[in-house]
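Example record

One chain of 111 residues, shown exactly as stored in the release files.
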Amino acid sequence: MWDSARVGADAVPIRTARGWLEIYPRANAEHRYGLGALLLDPDDPSKVIGRTKNPIMVPTAAYALSGFFGYVVFTNGHIVDGDRLTIYYGAADECVCGAHFSINEILSRLS
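Predicted structure tokens for this chain:
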């Protein structure tokens, strides 16, 4: 899988009607980091009931591709405002950025 080399946990899970949504950083075999999402059972969060087949975010901007440790984005935290999810993320281990997502869109990508 796209996250088979390294998986981490950062921001707290987000309660949704379908379960706990977790945004997590991962690395592939080439040490390139991105963000994925998985859904945990609402009653037993030790059970994964869905996950993205592909990352929801990968480094593409110059500030994320080169730096102290390039090709890296990782979560620092988030703010939920209805369906709008603002994820604060680190890029290339040098700067902190923000990106907006739709929670429903992320949930639709889980399998």
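Notes: Residues 24 and 81 are 19 Å apart (CA to CA).
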